[in-house]
Structure formats: C-alpha cells, structure tokens
Amino acid sequence: MLASEFKRRRRELMRMMGSDSIAILPTAPLLIRSRDVHYPYRPDSDFYYLTGFPEPEAALVLIPGRKQAEYILFNRERDPAKELWDGFRAGQEGACSDYGADDSFPIGDLDDILPRMLEQCERVFYVMGCNPRFDKRLSEWINTIRSESRSGMHGPVEIIALDHYLHEMRLFKSRSELKAMRQAARISAKAHKKVMLACEPGVWEYQLEAEFVHECSHLGAKAQAYPPIVGAGANACTLHYIDNRDKVEDKQMLLIDAGCELDCYASDITRAYPVNGRFSETQRLLYELVLAAQDAAIAKVNPGNHWNDPHDAAVRVITRGLVKLGILKGLVAKLIREEKYKTFFPHRTGHWIGMDVHDVGDYKVDGAWRLLEPGMALTIEPGIYIPAGSKGVAKKWWNIGIRIEDDVVVTKEGCEILTKDLPKSVEEIESIMGA
Ligand code: GLY
Ligand code: MN
Ligand code: MN
User: Fold this and answer.
1) pLDDT digit string (tens) for 223-266?
2) Residues with a known catalytic role
3) Domains along the chain with CATH numbers
4) pTM above 0.85?
5) Which of 79, 108, 407, 414 is the most buried (most CB within 10 A)?
6) Ligand (nearest to CA of 225)
7) Which of 381, 403, 407, 419 should be mutated for ligand 1, with most atoms under 8 A from CB?
8) Ligand 1, from 257, 269, 348, 349: best to mutate by most atoms within 8 Å of Cβ?
9) How far is CA 193 from CA 100, 212, 429, in A?
10) Cβ proximity of 90 and 68 under 8 Å
C-alpha cells in the first residue's frame, strides 16, 4: 500500500472530525503465549488502516488543524541492544520519514504529552472497550485535566465513537485494497487446489491443513486470516471445527474453510468434495443444491439490492431443494416463515470481508438492511449440514457437511468474484481430483 493511500485516509477522517478534535488510537498489544514466547504479532486493523505502521507499542494521534503537527505517532525508541535480538525499529525519525508522521515521540512519554494535547480539544474520537488498559489511561488523563480546571482548563467535553467513522470508511474498498484482496484470494485458491490434489482416503485432516498453510507461506502469505477448518464426515458438520486431527476416510465428504491473509487483508474460501474424488449420488444431490443456492445468492449481489437479498435467495433455493429431497417436509413458504431450514442451514449467507475476515461495517442503517454499493466486499457461503441422528432424515444423508464460500466485491454492474480461480462444479472437482 502506498504512503499516499494512508495519508488520504487520515485526511478523510480528519475532515469528518472537524476542528477542536483529537483522535487517539493505540495499536494491538503484543501478547504472551507462555513465558517469554509471544503470539505472532498482528497490528490492530483500524490502526494499521490509518498508519501502515507494523510495530507493536504504538499509538496514533490526529489533531486536525493543529499548526505544529496534525499526525503524531507515539512509538518505540531505537534500541541497539533490543534490535540485535528482535530486529529493526523505525524509531521517531523513521516514524516521520517512512510513515509520514508530522511528529513522533517515544511511547513511554504518552502520560506526559497526551494530557497536554487533550486539554486543547473539545471532542475525543476514541474506540472504547477494545483495550481496557488504554481506556483506563484515557480516563486518567481526562481526570487529570479536570482536576486542573481552576487554572482555566476545561478539557474535552465529548467522547465520540471513532469506530463509527472509521468502519464506514473501511467498508468501501479502494482500488489498492481490492488489489491486495485479489492477490490474497489468488494465493488461497492455489492452496485450495493443492489440498484437492493431496486429498485421498487415509490422509489426516492436519496433513491437509499443512498442505494449505505450506502453499500460502510458499507464495508469500505467511499468515492465515483465521485458523483453517478441515473436517471430513461428521467433523464437517461442526461449523468452525479447527481441531483438524482425524483420519479422512473413503466415502466421506471433506469440508475445508481456509484463507490466507496478505498485507493485513483476508481471504475466506470454503470448498467441499468427496475424499475419494468421486461424488456419490447422495453427495452430488446435496452439493449441487448448495451450489445452486450460492449461484442464486451471487446473482443478487448488485448495487441497489439489500444486504439480505443474497441470503433470502439462498434460503429459498435450499428450502425448496431440501423439500424435494425429502429432508424437510411441508410447504416451502411455511418452512421459510417458520425458519425450519435453520436445522440444516443454521448460519447466514455471508459477512463483510476486508482487513478482518469478519470485517467491520454496519449491516443495517436505521433498522433496515443497508443497500449494497460498489466497493463493498462480502462472502457468499451457503451450506447444508446433516449430522448423524438428524430426526426424520434418511440415514444416507447423515454426516454430510457442505459449505461453498467465495469472496465477492460489489461493482457498478454487479459483482466481481475475487476467488473465481478456484473451481467448484462437480465436473471440475472430479477432473482435478482424478488427475
Ligand atoms: N471462515 C469463517 C467464516 O467463513 O465465516
Ligand atoms: Mn466466511
Ligand atoms: Mn470461511
């Protein structure tokens, strides 16, 4: 992502904030896994969206219209001894020269400097409740200013939800964001193909997971957007099964929901196929039903349609199909009204996707589903899951879990399928797996 893009985002946010305002946004903390080993570090998405700054222990401050500096970055100081072990730090000089800050201070100086900045402002834009330690510090700074009110300082009078503004911006993907998402999707599609080729009776779920992660890393995407879900047979009926520890057997269906993260942008793809590469009649009937639901849902991803239109379309196709197969019994309209399809299709058809796999952005505005607009990116992922023991359902359907998931972005004309490189028809899957 170019420096100019981060700058444009900060500008846009500052324009919305107006004068006499300050925005404060810390990045994610570095978390200890055990003893002195940390979890792999990932910056906070909101923070990274505005800064492109990858290091932990940093906070962004924006003060629109402030003469000395509008964009101030608090970050770690250079430290040769620490850098010998953990690598390069940009320091205060780098914050300005490489990340476009107008001014930068050591993160350890926050308590001294920030109250002086806060007392000049009427409104504080801040994300409350995400970082309890930082929330506490902010209230302490505000109290400090209040306690000095006799000296004429009154300090901020309003705290405004920064996320409300930021998440609306993040909902609409720019050209360079879509480029990153396309690339993440391309890598994930390649990795899914590798898994298809490696899948056969006797292989273990974790070996298929390893195949996926290996290919992503090999292609430069070292992080996953979420833990891969790889389950065969009954395991495919657990929506977020991440144990991935069983042996994959002949005649089962495999479900793999996995997507890499690239430059802090997610991909999210699910495919389901027979472990032995040939659909049985039952597997094919259910699979083609989910595929038809997905097609119907994708056809509804058009500007001007409601967020919920794709889901409604998927529900109609699945309910009708389940009745036809004898898995649901009754009148389609009534089954939909009473949400009986939820026994087998218990989740929604998708979610926003972007820097986070379940990305930010409101789904409703003033109580009504929002309209789809160009630049919004979402997943389309209907599914059918029939665990063993499902009441009134013939045994031949048991232990099949199918979800088909692609990532799409709304365009002026309709939508672009970011994950289109990965085949999903019965014929394509059988031909890849038979090869
Ligand atoms: N991979 C999680 C989801 O599809 O929402
Ligand atoms: Mn998803
Ligand atoms: Mn998924």
Assistant:
1) 999 999 999 999 999 999 999 999 999 999 999 999 999 999 99
2) 36, 240, 257, 268, 347, 351, 358, 381, 385, 403, 405
3) 3-170 (3.40.350.10), 172-434 (3.90.230.10)
4) yes
5) 407
6) 1
7) 381
8) 257
9) 40, 9, 9
10) no
